[in-house]
Structures are given as C-alpha cells and as structure tokens.
Amino acid sequence: MQKERRRRFLQRLPGYSLWYLVLTVGAFLSLFPYLLVLLTSFKPANQLFSGEPWSLPTVFTLQSYSDVLTQYNFPGYIAHTLLYAGFATLGQLVFGTFAAYAFARIEFPGREILFWLYLATMMVPNIVTLIPMFMLMRAFGWINTYYGLIIPSVLGSPYGIFLMRQFFRTIPQDLESSARIEGATTLQIITHLILPLSRPILATLAIITFVQAWNDFLWPLIVTYSDALKVLTVGVSSFQSMHGAQWNLMMAATFIILGPLLLLFFVFQKQIVRSIHLSGFK
C-alpha cells in the first residue's frame, strides 16, 4: 500500500510542481505592485530615481507618512471615509434585512414581479443614474453635505437584498411557524430567530459593502467639493494633481488607504473566505 501511494505521488509530482509554479508566479505578479508602493513610501525624495524602483532604500524613513498625516488633511479624509463606509454598511444591513425578509416571507400582491423589477436595476450601470441622483440631491439641498454623501448608499441595494433574500429562503419555514404559535411577532422573529441564523450572510454583506464604500470614488467626487467632506479616494486624487511629482508622498498616501483594508483582511480572514464562497465577491 505504501509503495502504491508513493508511486502515485511520484507520478503526480510533475503536475503538482507545475501548478505550484504557476501559483507562485501569479502571487508574485499580484504582490509586486504593493511591494513597489511600500518600498517607495520608505525612500527619501533624493533616492527615488537613484536606483531601480524595486531596490531597497539605503535609509528607511517614515518622513513621507509623517508629512502626509501632518501637513495635509489625511486624518480628516480617513474620518470621513470611516463615517461614510460605516453608515453605508449599517444601512445596508438594517434596510437590506427588512426588505429581504419581506420579499422572502411576507405574502403580498405583486411580490415576485416587484422583486424581479427591482433586481433588474442591477443591469443598469451606475453612471446612468448618476445625473438623476445628483439632481435629486440638489433639489433637497444636500450637495456637499453628509446627507448627500451617505443617504444614497444607506437604503439597501439590489445585490444585497437579493443575497439576503436567497439566504432567508433556505431557513425552514417550520421554525417561524413554531415561533408564531408561541406568540412571537414578526419583529421578534427577525431579531431573535432569523438574524442569529444569518450571521454568515450578514458578515458577507458587511464586508462587501464596507470594501465597496471604502473604495468608492465617483459618487463622493460628484456630490462633495469641500475639503471638509472629502473621502480618501477623492483626497488622494486631488493630492496627486497638486503633488504628482512627489512619488514618495503619493505612495505613502496610497498605503494609508490600503492599511485599513489589510487590517480588515487579517482580522476577518474566515469571514472573507466565506464571503467569496457565498457570493463570488473578489
């Protein structure tokens, strides 16, 4: 038996080696840009063009990070982005949960037609609704305000509601029937029965929403113009236009944006892997 296993392993070894080589090359190509960003952010300005971009700095310095955080409004950009992403995530979880439960469990006329019509809006590119949404925010007087920045991303999304609805439909109806026999209300069923059973999908939706909001650029660029409301992506864009030649500052600012997402990945590795499995999100 041992000889047979060893023979099979030796037969498959070339194939395994080839796959590991392909994966190693792919991982290197994926990580190499981040390595360049990190190395450039640690170099003094006079070393940026004195050698190869991937060469190690002769003197490691954090001066670029200090300049970005102290001389510019990056702490404010970080606070605005956290506020924007946090409210967007909370709103998607709250409103998405209630809307998904209504589409999954509550019987009302036209439920399926309304759901599929709402889901069909996923086929419409965001750029198409950008101008109508801007005109609506202007009519409300919410241009360059937190209301205009946050509210459009709070009230659920077709993708999030679809994801939650499909998961809710997998929960046995008998559990809810038993709870109603015991006298539980719909709100109690959602909070004490549905939500505890839906932690994996809630974590999935929270991760997807937070990452998308953190990286969002177009809507914050359109609806805000003052420095007091800029998020990180818009701040880095304007920072690049003003200081495009200072690559060490640009790379430091870029790595500041990546930092929270890297921390999110290391803290919630299991949930992120599960989110990829459940939703195909990358």
Automatic annotation (TrEMBL):
Keyword Phosphoprotein: no
GO-annotated biological processes: transmembrane transport
Membrane topology classification: Multi-pass membrane protein
Transmembrane helix keyword on record: yes
Location in the cell: Cell membrane
SUPFAM superfamilies, alphabetized: MetI-like
Membrane-crossing residue ranges in chain numbering: 20-42, 82-103, 115-140, 146-168, 189-211, 247-268
Superkingdom of source: Bacteria
Keywords: Cell membrane, Membrane, Transmembrane, Transmembrane helix, Transport
InterPro entries: MetI-like (IPR000515), MetI-like_sf (IPR035906)
ABC transmembrane type-1 domain span: 78-268
CDD domains: TM_PBP2
Pfam families: BPD_transp_1
Record GO cellular component, one term: plasma membrane
Similarity comment: family membership: Belongs to the binding-protein-dependent transport system permease family.
Protein name as annotated: Carbohydrate ABC transporter permease
